[in-house]
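re: ur msg from earlier - yeah i can do the magnesium ion complex, just paste it... oh wait u already did. ok heres what im feeding in:
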Amino acid sequence: MKQDQGAGRDGRATQEPIVLEVRGLSKRFVSHEAEVHAVEGISLSVRRGEFLTIVGPSGCGKSTILSMIAGFEPPDAGEIMTEGRPVTGPSPERVMVFQDLGLFPWLTVEGNVRFGLERTGLAPAEIDRRVRTYLDLVHLWENRGSLMHQLSGGMKQRVSLARALAMEPKFLLMDEPFSSLDSHTRERLQGELQELWEKTWCTFVFVTHGLKEAVALGDRVILLSARPGRIQREIRVDLPRPRSVDDAPVLKIAKELRAGISSWVDPVTRAEESL
Ligand SMILES: Nc1ncnc2c1ncn2[C@@H]1O[C@H](COP(=O)(O)OP(=O)(O)OP(=O)(O)O)[C@@H](O)[C@H]1O
Ligand SMILES: [Mg+2]
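and the outut:
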């Protein structure tokens, strides 16, 4: 974990090197029944320590893009480079947080965070340090002995974040991690995630179908079209942090973005985004 980098937090990454570069990314899925053109011609660059959000309607290929960056799926066309090297498969440098967290119900909070670390070959003292550090960061050290069924949805999400951050990845890839939470818990975690980001200097790529969430969290927002997902707009959000989805400047930007989208017919998003 790196702190006190000297730069101000707002727009902290503008002077940093580009560490993730995606060029001309396209993906089709072919099954015996049909062919789905998921994403088309996606190009983007992300600077070290940046918080990038990608927003778009359901089915536009957001998870597909993250999976390709994580190295789980190969692209059909285009390339992905991290720190100048092509992505050819998964790596502990790129950790993904999924919507359905994938926590082990038979392990405690601590056991879930420890699990991946114990498979890295790290020294036991370093594993202990990380478990303590990251459970403290997500305010779950006191709950370290609890099992998953004893936790609220928000607490489980924090375990999942601690488990991912404990790997001290260079990139944290998050796929709609808060979408199953109630709005109150979601807003609290949106605030906590910004605090975690400020403390870790990790590069965050966060996918959501909520425009307000994308604007509240991102240094930069990439807006995708409906399938096949293409980049429709890209905006920088220069607002002070921590931000909330209810902040007037956040709502203003989200509204402007929404006004530019004519083809966004996503009942889920419409229902959630009362702009
Ligand atoms: N492994 C796969 N095999 C076949 N089709 C797939 C596969 N993965 C994704 N797709 C299809 O590709 C399209 C994009 O899917 P993807 O999950 O990336 O969208 P999304 O933007 O993440 O949607 P949501 O907001 O609902 O999570 C969808 O039509 C989906 O059915
Ligand atoms: Mg998805």
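cool cool. The beta strands are 18-30, 35-47, 51-55, 77-82, 85-86, 94-97, 171-175, 203-208, 220-224, 231-236. ping me if u need the other ligands too
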